Amino acid sequence: MDYRALHRRSIDDPSGFWGEQSQQIAWMRAPTQVLAQDENGADRWFVDGLLNTCDLAVDQHVRAGRGECTAVLYDSPVTGTQARISYATLQQRVASIAGGLRALGVERGDRVVIYMPMVPEALMAMLACARLGAVHVVVFGGFAAPELAIRIDSVAPKVLLTASCGIEPKGVVPYQPMVDEALRRAAHPPSQCVVLQRPQALFELQADRDLDWHDFESAASPVEPVPVAATDPLYILHTSGTTGRPKGVVRDNGGHAVALTYSMGAIYAMNPGDVYWAASDIGWVVGHSYIVYGPLLAGCTTVLYEGKPVGTPDASAFWRVISEHRVQAFFTAPTAFRAIKKADPEARAMRPHDLSSLRHLFLAGERLDPPTYEWLRTHLDVPVLDHWWQTETGWAIAANPAGLALQPSKPGSATFPAPGFNVQVLDSQGAPLPTGETGNITIRRPLPPGCLPTLWNDHPRCQAAYFERYPGHYLTGDGGHFDADGYLFVMGRTDDVINVAGHRLSTGEMEEVVARHPAVAECAVVGVQDDLKGQLPLGLVVLKDGADIDPAQLQSELVQQVREAIGPIACFRTALVVERLPKTRSGKVLRNVLRKIADGEPHPPPPTIDDPAILEEIETVLENRLLREKG
Ligand code: COA
Ligand code: AMP
After folding, report:
1. Residue 631 has pLDDT above 70, yes or no
2. Cα 482 to ligand 1 centre (Å)
3. pLDDT tens-digit profile of 18-32?
4. Band of the pLDDT at 628, cuts 50, 70, 90?
5. Which end of the chain is more exposed for a tag (fewer CB within 10 A), N or C?
6. Which residues pair with 76 in a beta bridge?
7. Which sign, positive or negative, has the C-alpha torsion 285, 128, 61, 33?
8. For residue 490, which of 363, 368, 336, 335 has the smallest C-alpha distance?
9. Quick check: 311 and 319 in contact, CB under 8 A?
């Protein structure tokens, strides 16, 4: 098949293309209209269709006689447990959890916050919400209490589903202090919490607020899937923007089910019964799309892995899981392989494992850097496929379509735009740039099914953030170029979002936290290159006149402040004191120049700089720091 012709057709005739794809799913009422615009002028797919995403992900496989097939393989090296959950068991447990939620008053359209580690109940909780037509809002376990509180307030949930602890290689992370603190802070706390007790740490239940998960589930009457409109929200997932307020990306039911079902075949080459493993976390979009919904919609077995690439117990962890569970498609972030490569440069830990089941390796979350790509190519005998996507799109914008027609890979490129994505590279004025020239990457409307229709309760912000800069286009926030063969190279963010170990974080948010310190007059946080995590945040602070604080003490206080406000996942570890920050004559901090200095790149002073001498001062501070680090 000619992939380019197929892609062209998806762009020239989106309604025809996606109308056909929509027939792959079992609607409760098939849509008659493929593409329309809503009251906000946003593109909406399959508007008059009715479906239930949980029915498609679970019940339809049981109805088809596949109830005894394995839906979920739970593999948890941190607790030393494994479990195999069939589609029939999944259906029965999800129906009961949905019944428990209904007994607490949760109905179609209500929000439920899920703050849980990587345990089967977390996945079941998401599906139970989908079954009721309720909207789940998963919050990653590495976020601190204030982040949980912000997300609670942004959606005003009826119920919070949580657990007594998460388990990190360094030890048990009790959730109670974070949950209690978040509920104290929140202006719109839920009236009920349901707590999954894990033996590693107990949660002291508050009689008027908390229910034990076991009681909640066992007392419930199972419920059937509730038909919902294709345009009803399935979930809200918050992601970092350029300010301290995260964006609540909304995902609808219909477009999502069609897009993910399509992607499982077209991009991942998966068939029902195949084993698919995305080593991410349900707190991120990769976890939503490819730990939970994608594999289950496609009738595959999904691996739910509660562990790390290294340290649980060592760099053999991924190879063990692939060989033990006969994984056919594996998906993770490049940073995970950089960690493995660092611990085991010759990939010796791979050798005892039979990896013959593996057909493709998929990477995303950050650019697959050429050295990691080459290392993987040397050691693995399967195609190594980078693909680029975002929380907002929910599935790959650019990929090597393994299920349609595998293309030769090029190091550093995510290959071609995926079907339905009309990707453009524009200059600052909105003109398309010639091949090879780097600019802002946009997607021409309509965005294909599965992409965000809006931000929760804030359509004006959605318009301003994504659709105003280039009318008729969605602004991805990434920069890059096409080469002469049409391969897309995504080189990095063009805004103040950074990517730390495949996690998307806002430097603006960290600046807000750092600026709260009583000794800090002003600050800038920039992302600097890191061999393991891709980027790490670096804080540069200017002290208030007369502030008398030792720089090491200040750094440790700021690090603690960021851990408490955002979470350990921010990996904020360095804050250096400088005399002044470089600014434009209009007073804007030149963060890009700071980043270049920190990365040792050429940094000619921009013409708008108010005082070029500042750059030398900052170079000296950074050089001194480097010298200290080298001993
Ligand atoms: N709950 C609580 N704390 C968490 C957490 C969670 N779910 N996840 C991470 N943290 C904490 C860690 O314990 C660590 O805390 P510390 O500063 O006290 O040590 C901190 O957040 C940073 O965690 P992490 O990024 O995991 O760093 P690491 O140095 O322990 O491990 C890697 C490095 C590369 C192994 C790890 O980042 C990794 O596995 N990355 C892959 C990421 C990924 O899959 N991304 C998904 C996108 S597809
Ligand atoms: P998130 O919304 O957390 O998934 O992060 C999305 C951001 O991660 C994108 O905007 C990119 O900056 C980056 N990203 C994800 N995958 C890739 C990739 N394959 N290549 C380059 N950047 C990527």
Report:
1. no
2. 33
3. 999 999 999 999 999
4. confident
5. C
6. 81
7. negative
8. 368
9. no
As a dihedral over the C-alpha atoms of residue 197, residue 199, residue 203, residue 207, rounded to 10 degrees, the angle is: 50
Q: Using CA atoms, how far apart are residues 538 and 571, in angstroms rounded to an integer?
A: 10
Closest CA to 85 of 105, 62, 112, 101: 62
Q: Quickly list DSSP for 508-522.
A: HHHHHHHHTSTTEEE
- Whether the CB-CB separation of 327 and 357 falls below 8 Å is answered with yes
The number of beta carbons lying within 10 Å of the beta carbon of residue 29 is: 12
Q: Which residues line ligand 1 (CB under 6 A)?
A: 141-142, 166, 168, 170, 173, 279-280, 284, 286, 308-310, 332-333, 335-336, 339, 364-365, 501-503, 568-569, 571
Atom of ligand 2 nearest to the CA of 414: 19
The token duo for 265 is 């075949």
What confidence tens digit (pLDDT) does each residue in 540-572 have?
999 999 999 999 999 999 999 999 999 999 999
Q: Which atom of ligand 1 is nearest to the CA of 571?
A: 22
Give the span between the Cα atoms of 297 and 354, in whole angstroms.
28
Pocket test for ligand 2, best of 499, 506, 507 (most atoms within 8 A of CB): 499
Q: Whose CA is nearest to atom 15 of ligand 2?
A: 365
Q: Is the pLDDT of residue 1 over 70?
A: no
3-state secondary structure of 177: helix
Cα 491 to averaged position of ligand 2 atoms, centre (Å): 10
The token pair at 356 is 């013959």
Contact 338, 532 (CB under 8 A): yes
> From ligand 1's centre to the CA of 569, what distance in Å?
6
Would you state the structure tokens that stand for residue 146, as one six-digit string?
A: 């204030």
Give per-residue pLDDT as tens, 495-529.
889 999 999 999 999 999 999 999 999 999 999 99
Express each pLDDT in 202-222 by its tens digit.
999 999 999 999 999 999 999
Q: Which ligand is nearest to the CA of 343?
A: 1
The residue type of 70 is T
What is the gyration radius of the CA atoms in the chain, in angstroms?
A: 24
pLDDT-based confidence at 225, cuts 50/70/90?
very high
Which residues lie below 8 Å from residue 101, measured CB to CB, with a gap of 6+? 112, 128, 129, 132, 134, 159
CA within 13 Å, CB half, 288: 32
Nearest to 575 by CA among 545, 623, 538, 624: 538
**Measuring from atom 22 of ligand 1, which residue has the nearest CA?**
569
DSSP code of residue 407: P
pTM above 0.90, yes or no: yes
